[in-house]
Amino acid sequence: MNPDRWQRIERLYHAALVLPGRERAAFLTEACAGDKALRREGQALLDSPAMAQRFLTAPALARGHRW
Question: Is the pTM of this model over 0.85?
Answer without folding.
Answer: no
